[in-house]
Amino acid sequence: MYAEQTQLGVAREHVRRGLPISVIVIDFFHWPNQGDWTFDEAYWPDPEGMVRELREMGIELMVSVWPTVQTESLNYGEMVEKGYLVRTDRGIRTQFQFLGQNEIFDATHPGAREFVWEQIKRNYYDKGIRLFWLDEAEPEFGVYDHDIYRYDAGPALQVGNWYPSQYSRTFYEGMTGAGQENVINLVRSAWAGSQRYGALAWSGDIASTFEVLGHQVRAGLNMAIAGIPWWTTDIGGFHGGNPDDPAFRECIIRWFQYGTFCPVMRLHGDRSPYREADTGLPGGGLWGSGADNEVWSYGDEAYGIFGEHMRLRERLRPYLTEQMEAAHLKGTPPMRPLFYDFPDDSAAWDVDDQFMLGPDLLIAPILQADVRGRDVYLPAGSKWTDAHSGETLDGGQAIFADAPIERIPVYLRGGAKLPIRASAE
User: Fold this and answer.
1) d(CA 18, CA 14)
2) I need a surface site. Which of 107, 238, 240, 271 has the fewest CB within 10 A?
3) Does residue 402 carry a catalytic annotation?
């Protein structure tokens, strides 16, 4: 019962501390074998009870799903026989080697989508789970010779980029078919059209550095302009980062501040030092864990900053809901580059390290270590109010903004009244 009680313990501690939390995730290898798409009962004996307790705390459970099907999976033989797995024109059948030999379920095959959803519905959805994390969504082949792979829809060289959207489609059609509205699922890859299937794209397993944080700001804006409004990153990055390292603490503080103003705010990462698995048994016993990554794992200063930004996010909930409704009805990305709102300001087209969150908030993340201020461009045609100091400035100019470690530069457009400061509630 170790995994299940650990999961619940983290949720209870958030509630005890009065920290806002709406979703908690069960990550990979909670299953006996890849392709079983079910909980390993040795570690998760009472999923229904876990979902009930979390929901009583106001927390929804999200579960990680992979498209990999291990040769030992209880579903492998039937899926091979029915042609529900990606085929390989030459060489061995298996396409992905990770804690077993795996093939990939063919999300372009209508029958395969229905088959996988039947497993998901019986083993997760019917137990009360309404959110899914669709990992490995590219999909990740062990050998990147894409000319050898063939989907039901055609050769991988012709249709391979379509796979992520069809992976999301599997769950969207299953969930809406079960009567659910407002479907959204986290997915590691997306393609044109993925947005119609409730895809919340995140940037994958990225390094835990300031340099990569800068890449995320640009990537998220490109994703928005490509027509996919839901975007998030692993706050702090995925690979590396020791919670006891002062340099990484600064990085994750700045990342957390940026994440507060992303369409979805989400903490995740494989922290060091790594802890080996303690049993060696199948499923959860095969894979160890990174170091603790809860917001209270980074020392008092970071914890205070994290808590303030979590509460800020909650105060902005009505505003964020408006932006999400606009995204749903019109496709308007909640987070977008400056030129989206200010197309006539030529200078706005040259700014790639600031963004608007909805029409009223301008965000200027801190993207380097040991930096306590930055240049900020305020677009022409509006007045701008420093959300922290209350100072009002004219648009059409670059200014220098102070940014002590506890604060990210944020500006309110025109006379917008939003509760950035706690005193403004």
Assistant:
1) 6
2) 240
3) no
Q: Name the E strands within 285-346.
A: 289-291, 335-336
CATH code for residues 333-424: 2.60.40.1180
Q: For residue 424, what pLDDT is reported?
A: 47
- Give the Cβ contact number of residue 356 at 10 Å: 26
Max CA distance (Å), the chain? 68
Of 4, 40, 103, 135, the active-site residue reads 135
* Topology alike, domains 2-324 and 333-424: no
pTM over 0.85: yes
pLDDT at 423 over 70: no
Q: Catalytic residue among 36, 136, 138, 250, which?
A: 138
Active-site hit among 114, 205, 314, 353? 205
β-pairing, 231-232 vs 289-291, is unpaired
135 is catalytic: yes
> In this model, does residue 285 exceed pLDDT 80?
no
| CATH superfamily, with its number, for domain 2-324 | Glycosidases (3.20.20.80)
Domain ranges of the chain: 2-324, 333-424
169-198: pLDDT as tens digits = 999 999 999 999 999 999 999 999 999 999
Write the pLDDT tens digit of every residue in 140-170.
Answer: 998 878 899 999 999 999 999 999 999 999 9
